[in-house]
Amino acid sequence: MTINKFINARSWAARSLASLLAGFVLACSLPTAALAQAASAPESAAPAAAVAPAPPAAPVAPTITEEAVDNPYGLKALWAQGDYVARSTLIILVIMSMGSWYIIFTKLFEQRAMLKSARASSELFWKASSIKDGMGSLEEGSAFRFIAERGIASSDHHEGTMVETIDKHTWIGMSIDRAVGNVQGRLQDGMAFLATVGSTAPFVGLFGTVWGIYNALVKIGISGQASIDKVAGPVGESLIMTAIGLAVAVPAVMGYNWLIRRNKAVMDETKAFAGDLLNVLLAGKRA
Asked: Which of 164, 214, 223, 257 is 20 to 30 A (C-alpha) from 133?
């Protein structure tokens, strides 16, 4: 009985030892298998990466070309769609602008000619031996020659006429002053037009704008559509009138102020020449 128990105990110890050895062997084999599987993963991924197709090239953006589109609400549309009042207003503004620029350039050339005559009178006229010789050195039709001719005529035809009762000094002075006044009046020609254009052109353009907006609102009310395309177009066309009025008025005002300042410089030279001429005529050296 004792031997049987010993044999059974021995068999149980052998089975327990075998179980422990089998668990130890399995535990040691698991990390090795995991490491082998991890090592084989990059090797299997490398061929896959090698045969992976290249990414497609980025698409080239198409070239965008801008096409010129006619403005349906510009000056052309304003003229084509406007009534007789709008067209008349636009024609008036164009006439104002053309007249302003014509006067500005005409007066500019006239002032330059008078300043040139002033330099010629100081260089040639006063260096002549007599007034008549000096008058021949002045340009024909110039303002300074006109003043010299009037002064000489008043001095030559004083005696034996109705004006003989007026003393010679006063008569010659009056004649030269009148000649200077004529020159000044000629310089002022057209300046009133510039002042009128500068002060009224914005209001003429504003009238065209108000009239255009009125017509636009009437058309919108008749059609019954108040969308942005129905409002912006006609109103924008009407506002062009205000812009045109300002474009006409600004050059007229600036030209007026500029020409007035230049007229003052020209008249200073003219009055100085007239005063010197008066003194020479009263001195009696005319021949």
From this structure: 164
Contact 111, 262 (CB under 8 A): yes
Decide: helix, strand or coil at residue 226: coil
pTM of the model: 0.65
Query: Do residue 104 and residue 194 come from a single domain?
Result: yes
Q: Alpha-carbon distance 254 to 136, whole Å? A: 38
Please report, to the nearest 10 degrees, the dihedral formed by the alpha carbons of residues 209, 210, 215, 218 taken in order: 140
Q: In total, how many domains does the chain have?
A: 2
Q: Is residue 193 part of a domain?
A: yes
Q: How far is Cα 207 from Cα 214, in angstroms, rounded to an integer?
A: 11
In a domain, 167, yes or no: yes
State the residue range of the domain holding 25: 1-29
C-alpha pair distances (Å), 23 with each of 11, 16, 17, 19: 19, 11, 10, 6
